Amino acid sequence: MTIAIRVENISKKYKIGAAPGKFQYGMLRDVLVDTAKAPFRLAASAFKRDKTEHAPRNTNFIWALKDVSFDLEEGRVLGIVGRNGAGKSTLLKVLSRVTEPTRGFVSVRGRVGSLLEVGTGFHPELTGRENIYLNGAILGMKRAEITAKFDEIVEFSEVAQFIDTPVKRYSSGMYLRLAFAVAAHLEPEILVVDEVLAVGDAEFQRKCLGKMNDVAQQGRTVLFVSHNMSAILRLTQDAIVMNKGQLIMRGPTAEAVDYYLASGQTQAGERLWEADEVPASAAPFLPVALRVKDPRGAVVDSFRSTEALTLEIEYKLNAPVTGLRVGVYLCTVRGEYIFTSFDVDDAALYEQHATRQAGHYISHCQVPGDLLNEGRYILGVNASSFGVKRYFMDENALAFNIDPMGAPGMQWAEPRQGPIRPRLGWVIEEVG
Amino acid sequence: MSITHVEPTTVYIKPANGLAALNLRDLWTYRELIYFMIWRDLKVRYKQTLLGAAWAVIQPLMTMLVFTFLFSNVAKMSSDNVPYPIFSYTALLPWGLFTTALNNASRSLTSNTNMVTKVYFPKLILPMASVLAGLVDFAIAFVILFGLMFYYHVTPSWTALWAVPVFLLLSVITALGVALWLSAINVQYRDVGYALPFLTQFWMFLTPVAYSSSVISQKWQIVYALNPMAGVVNGFRWALLGSGNPPDVLVAISAGIALIVLFTGLIYFRNMERTFADTI
After folding, report:
1. Is A26 exposed, middle or buried (0-12, 13-18, 19+ CB in 10 A)?
2. What are phi and psi of A163, to 5 degrees?
3. Largest CB tally within 10 Å, which of A214, B80, B134, B212?
């Protein structure tokens, strides 16, 4: 099989300023002052007895990518997963030739179409029609190509009646649909996609996934970065896991996703959040841990279908919050939702805890036994104030398994469909 | 839709060492994008304005009127035996091209940050499109020039047919050269945006736009010729009005400087291009 992309020891170093954002744009003045100070710095370090790597210059760099290597065969679809800041977008930027690697080598066979952002180059003053041509040209399509696909693009975007209105009049949904419609009709040999499915409503996301699936089925080589595990599972065959700039695992998608989900857990059945994983916008809510426990109180990740499960969310509040609700989503590993439940779903309980004072809390509940069918499930956590603010959300926080021993119907060795396996009180009556 | 089976080319990505190649072939592959960028600039420039494309004419006309009042009526400067208004207007045309090109091009990279950081394309296209878009404004204002020439009974000679395009090319080369330098520097050092109004103002005084280059003494003429726009302006005047000296070594010097600025600008731009996405 021909190799479409060969990545060898790619590394990318970024400079980070002591006061990022303040003097980001180099000003001649800074350069001059720096040059003037250099001899003094040199003299000072010469007098230092300390031989350790103490030079302040070193802390001014960060390796966004460090020795990343992999091969991708033609026609394969590769997923890339990892936490925020793992280096996924940087890797795509290097592959798209937007930025240059500091070290390493990549060989790419074929035309690369990059979808690092939807709507690149869209100008608000131009009409939808004009922007389709503009965006298409920026993404690398020839004018003839755009004209040939024009009707398809307009149909996909569902903005046919507004196609001749300036884009600044579009709603955000229309804008996204149009932008994605153009991007979705890119037909390069290699397609590189960066989390473009993260925006838009559920309907739009479903449509995008469908289109991405079509593209992947056509035999194109695709690199797909996403936080949406179900999309990764559905679209990709292999996946790589990145963390802090390094490629830590590569394997078939199911294994890689498992590895990624498990990597945040210190022990099976528990998910801890480190300070740098919590965005600043979550304040004053600070998630600490999410746990699942069996009836004996042990924190594990395997349960019997017949057993009750205890779900526990541990969190801190740095200030009093009103109207806060903390809860979980339960999904199948394919991304289908089973239920969403918040700690103050009960109206009386909500009245009681309308305002929570600053402090350290644990909200816990029981999922009854004889409810879930065998399989693997994903728990997500959500802390929000309805209609006001979403403090924190992590859709893929924890995974656990259910095994069906003792469940109704186990006398036959057949898998039952569906996420639920209740014990219904069947009665057999003879009538007549 | 199936994939058309064209033999795919292999691209190698690695950290560049040494000088970057000029890579003009890539520019050819992306030639349609140049057209689209110019088209976008033009479409957007006069949208939601009342006067629209008339602005392309108003600027040189108004400047000409002010100059006529100040330099001709008040200061009584010589204009080489040609009516002053047309004398200054002829120079204002290429000068307008130059300043518009500089103003737009120096911003071209920084005002398209999202394109620079998210898509691959030869970044040369952005300042190039700014310069070439200026040609359209030039063409509009040029039409007015014919009106003026008719009014003042000035007839161009046949040499204008080849001379005007040649000097127009020279002004485009000059504008492009300086634009490449400025747009690349502006990505790293935003001082360019602040310096530019002052720079263009100063440059105009050093170019014989409002006055004739005959007022400059002989020994300074050579130094003067180091300003490529001086050659352009003198050439335009000679081509259209027949005033001043025919192209000589001074114009050749100006042309030489313009080519050097362009060539070095291309090298500088291409070398800085690899850092644009990181520093913009």
Report:
1. middle
2. -65, -20
3. B134
Q: Please tell me if residue A75 touches chain B, with a CB cutoff of 8 Å.
A: no
> In A58-139, where does DSSP find H-type helix?
88-95, 128-139
Q: Quick check: B42 contacting A, CB < 8 Å? A: no
Q: Which of A315, A327, A330, A314 is nearest to A396 (CA)?
A: A330
CB contact set of A355 (below 8 Å; sequence gap of 6+): A320, A321, A322, A323
Beta-sheet pairing, A3-15 with A337-342: unpaired
Identity of the residue in B1, B9, B278 whose CB atom sits nearest the CB atom of A14: B278
Q: Which residues of B touch A110 (CB under 8 A)?
A: 8-9
Q: What's the gap between Cα B60 and its chain centre?
A: 15
CA dist., res. A274 & res. A243, Å (int): 14
Domain-embedded: residue A392: yes
Judgement on whether residues A205 and A294 belong to the same structural domain of the protein: no
Model-level pTM greater than 0.90? no
Chain A from 83 to 122: CB within 8 A of any B CB: 93-112, 114, 116-117, 120-121
State the helix-helix crossing angle for B55-67 and B84-108, rounded to 10 degrees.
Answer: 130
Domain containing residue A179: 64-262
What is the separation, in whole angstroms, between the first and last Cα of chain A?
69
Q: What percent of chain B has pLDDT over 90?
A: 29
Decide: helix, strand or coil at residue A395. Answer: strand
Q: Is B5 on the interface with A (CB under 8 A)?
A: no
Token representation of residue B55: 């602005």
Contact in structure between A62 and A16 (CB atoms under 8 Å):
yes
Task: Determine the residue among A28, A100, A135 to mutate to test chain B binding: the one whose Cβ has the most chain B Cβ atoms within 10 Å.
Answer: A100
Give residue B119's identity as a one-letter amino acid code.
Answer: V
Calculate the alpha carbon distances from B264 to B177, B180, B268 in Å: 8, 9, 6
Length of chain A: 432
The predicted-structure confidence for A371-428, as pLDDT tens digits, reads as follows: 999 888 889 999 999 888 889 988 888 888 888 888 888 888 788 888 899 999 999 9
Residues A132 and A165 in one domain: yes
Tell me the per-residue pLDDT of B43-65, one tens digit each, with 9 for 90 and over: 888 777 788 778 888 888 898 88
Mutate to test the interface with B, among A138, A145, A164 (most CBs of B within 10 A): A138
Quote the pLDDT of residue B71: 83
Average pLDDT, chain B: 86
Q: Decide if A34 is inside a domain.
A: no
Q: Does B3 touch chain A (CB under 8 A)?
A: yes
| pLDDT average, residue stretch A206-222 | 82
Cβ contact, residue pair B43, A126, below 8 Å: yes
Residue range A155-164: mean pLDDT, rounded: 90
Listed residues A242, A262, A282: the one ending a domain:
A262
Tell whether the model's pLDDT for residue B247 goes beyond 80: no
**Tens-place pLDDT, residues B120-156:** 889 999 999 999 999 998 998 888 888 888 888 888 7
Q: Structural domain tally of chain A? A: 2
pLDDT confidence of residue A54: 40
Query: In this model, does residue A40 exceed pLDDT 80?
Result: no
Q: Return the CATH number at A340.
A: 2.70.50.60
For residues A203 and A340, state if they share a domain. Answer: no
Question: Are A75 and A146 in the same domain?
Answer: yes
Least Cα separation, residue B8 to chain A (angstroms): 4
Q: Domain check: are A278 and A376 in the same one?
A: yes
Instruction: Decide if A31 is inside a domain.
Output: no
Residue A13 lies in a domain: no
The answer to whether residues A206 and A235 belong to one domain is yes
